[in-house]
Amino acid sequence: MAENVEFDSLDTETSETPFFIMPSNALKSLRDELSISEGEKLTNEMLYRYGVRCGEGMIERMSIKAGSSDEIARQLPNLWAGVGLGRVSAGPVEGDDLSFNFQESIEARAVGKTNEASCHFTRGYLVGIVQQISDKGYKAVETACLSRGDEACVIKLLPSTEYFEPVQEAAEAPQAKDYVGQASLPIEKGVSYLLETEDLGRCYDLFQERTLGGASGLCITRDFPDRVRSKHGIKKSPIIWLSNADLEYAVEPVQLGKLYHKIEDFLKRTENGLIILVGIEYLITQNNYSSALKFLQLIKDQISIYGATLLVPLVPEALAEKDLKLIEREFETIRVDK
Amino acid sequence: MGGDALKKDKVTTDGLSGDPTVPDVRASFFIVPTDILESLHREFAALAGERSSSGILYRTGHRCGQTVTSKMNFKLDDESLLGDALTNLWIEIGLGRISSIVPGPDGSLRIVSEESTEARAMGRQPGKRVCDITTGYLAGTASALTGVDYVCEEARCYAGGAERCEYVLRHRA
């Protein structure tokens, strides 16, 4: 562990044994099993996300911060020694870019020979630790890997815009709008709402109104983000685009797990969260109804736990009656007229 | 760990290098914060449905238990010592604390865990039994210790409302 690192006093129920032991070949088995059912790409991304979670979880309990790239490079090898994923040394620091050499990546050795870099869990773990100690966003690229015949694994960390902190829109007085004859929709914390409407603009307006009123917003949408910002005045709130485009702010619609992870991340970082999910119909068609419903149920639980609010606009006619009823049962349903 | 009930076995070598001088990295362990268990459960459930998710997590736990135990080179000569060995090993694993193990008339073991970290990570979910990795881990550990194939089921779960988790470990039929 790093010098002078101390564990905070813990008040969670899991505090007494916050870690358990996992052998590297169990990670490989998990990777293999997921690859069969989910395909290689999804599996690699999942392992990466679990790595990020682990890295963050490891550092959350320590009073440790690093203010500069040099400091990160200095502290990381000591922190990494406690992880168990192999020895690491820091490479040259170039501005915000960091580089780490893994002399014995146990993930690569567990995976064995492949044609591509394989240390996805390790990459994620590294990113999780560095993000947590620096409060900055990073992405990790493995430029050399034992698995594909390189002498050692090398992982570069680059600043990322994918990582976002909740922000508030300008503190302006919210303008009351007329929805279904009321001054404004009576939305509460800890509740998930289904907004049955054919006018998405009204739903965006409600989201914007609430973020101007102090809520920290996250907009997840099928609509192109630039257009959403210009048309609906959402200036600062982060937007995740539901799209197959290869962009940092896009999430492929079939990646429900990744989307869930981003939502969970957002909720953990804010006390007054408001999420609007525009395009549930698109998620249903790109996955299947039961996966999308399960996804909504899981988000709803998180919304309750974190005392946030979820808005899900939906055109009722887009779904079969039975499917609509099941979703309505999960949500507080509000009719938003034109 | 495990006192006299445990004995060491042979060491194997690394699969990637084939070099017997290189330590077997498949024996390497890393630490996983228990907080991640909730994310794992939820994401697998979203991805594969709850039933498949339980299966994946159980098998992952099984592999963990099997590997941790066998790579520590522990074996039991006498299966009747399994309860004691499990209790001692479990302290090191980080998935809870075994407070009692009661043999059943059918040869099964009823294991009571006071602080299942998996159940606590998942939070209260009335009526549910969530300790998939833990039950797999126990079955894998018992199988590796004895050389006999074990399965494990959760009978009561802290997450589901019970005071403590109870697992039933038995030979695979």
Instruction: Profile the largest sheet of chain B.
Output: 4 strands, antiparallel
Give the strand order of the largest sheet of chain B, numbering strands 1, 2, ... along the chain: 2-3-5-4
Tell me the series of helices and strands of chain B, N- to C-terminal: EHHHEEHHEE
What percentage of the residues of chain B does DSSP assign to strands (E)? 15-25%
Termini gap of chain A: 59 Å
**Average pLDDT value of chain B?**
81
- Order of adjacent strands in the largest pleated sheet of chain A: 9-8-7-10-11-6-12
Largest interface: A-B, 53 and 44 residues
Estimate the global geometry of chain B from the Cα principal axes.
Answer: globular
**In which range does the helix fraction of chain B lie?**
25-40%
Shape of chain A: globular
The chain-level mean pLDDT of chain A equals 83
**Structural class, from secondary structure content of chain B?**
alpha+beta
Whole-angstrom Rg of chain B = 16 Å
Can you give keywords for this protein?
heterodimer; A: 338 residues; alpha/beta; 7-stranded parallel sheet; 4-stranded antiparallel sheet; 11 helices; disordered N terminus; B: 173 residues; alpha+beta; 17% strand
What does this structure look like?
The complex is a heterodimer of chains A (about 350) and B (about 170). Helices cover about 40% and strands about 20% of the residues of chain A. Chain A has eleven helices and twelve strands. Chain A has helices at about 25-40, 40-60, 70-80, 105-110, 120-135, 200-210, 225-230, 255-270, 280-285, 290-305, 320-330; strands at about 20-25, 90, 100, 140-145, 155-160, 190-195, 215-220, 240, 250, 275-280, 310-315, 330-335. Chain A has a seven-stranded parallel β-sheet, sandwiched between helices. In chain A, strands 2-3-5-4 form a four-stranded antiparallel β-sheet, with helices on one face. The longest helix of chain A is centred in the first third of the chain and has 21 residues, at about 40-60. Chain A starts with 18 loop residues before the first strand and ends with a strand. With about 170 residues, chain B is an alpha+beta fold. Helices cover about 40% and strands about 15% of the residues of chain B. Chain B is built from five helices and five strands, in the order βαααββααββ. A four-stranded antiparallel β-sheet of chain B has the order 2-3-5-4, with helices on one face. In chain B, strand 4 (about 150-155) and strand 5 form a beta hairpin. Chain B is globular and about 40 Å long. At the A-B interface, strand 1, helix 1, helix 2, helix 4 and helix 8 of A face strand 1, helix 1, helix 2 and helix 4 of B.
